[in-house]
Amino acid sequence: MTTATTRRSDRRISPVFVGIVAVMAVTGWATWTGFAEQPGLAVFLFVTAAWIVSLCLHEYAHARTALHSGDISIGAKGYLTLNPLKYTHALLSIVLPVLFVIMGGIGLPGGAVFIEHGRIKGRWKHSLISAAGPLTNVLFAVVCTAPFWLDALDGVPAEFQFALAFLALLQVTAAILNFLPVPGLDGYGVIEPWLSHKIRRQVEPFAPFGLLAVFGLLWIPEVNGVFFDAVDAMLRGLGIDEIRTYCGQNLYRFWTETDQFCSVSQ
């Protein structure tokens, strides 16, 4: 087995990740119970910590799948510890996605764990490695939306519902963006093994700019409107209305004026 060549320390969960989970748990409890004097600050810390946890799990899914597909170098790189500081580009993987949530409320795809693709044989394995990350966002979205489509929110404080709805929006947007077949994103990584060598060579120079191109397109009002209409439709299908996601983002941005509707809506 490929895992036999990885040391136990290579798979030990990082204290950094444990600390992030602890922040998520404590601030989630504070939001649920109303313990925090400033619910907006508690929502901000809870959603941010949960978002970082999902980013770590996204990269872990890539790494773990690569390990079982043949890249036994993954463990030595520290990717199996869930430590975000071990990623090849911590700025792209953690800092930028968090900043985009703060600025615009969108789940920007992260990256990257360095995978030695030469160690991996078989196109299906390469595709699965790329798909593993965004599939984790899909799973996270299912967990976040489950209380809504299961009608299991009786007695749950409004602030926690809003926070969960906003977190679900981030996961849905991240999954959609990650699955776009754009060079540099996971969606392209899924189809790349099936393309001809000539096409791959032609596309390769554009990979570093794929994410920037997507970001630029989302600045176009018409494109942005279509994108978020699709996201809202998907969330409505999962039982989350626009009011909850709006109030979640409004509370998250605690440094701005809180909409009074969100502070009293149940």
Number of helices, where a helix is a run of at least 4 consecutive DSSP H or I residues: 12
Please summarize the sheet with the most strands.
none
Which word captures the global form?
globular
Number of strands: 0
Radius of gyration: 19 Å
Distance between the termini: 53 Å
Content-based structural category:
mainly alpha
User: What does the average pLDDT come to?
Assistant: 88
Strand percentage lies at under 5%
- Low-confidence parts lasting 5 or more residues at pLDDT below 50? none
Share of helix, binned: 55-70%
| N-to-C SSE string, H for helix and E for strand | HHHHHHHHHHHH
Tally of individual domains:
1
Could you give a quick summary of the protein structure above?
By secondary structure, this protein is mostly helical. The chain has 12 helices and no strands.
Account of the 3D structure:
With 266 residues, the protein is mainly α. It is 65% helix and 0% strand. The model has no long low-confidence stretch (mean pLDDT 88). The longest helix has 31 residues, at 39-69. The protein has one domain (15-257).
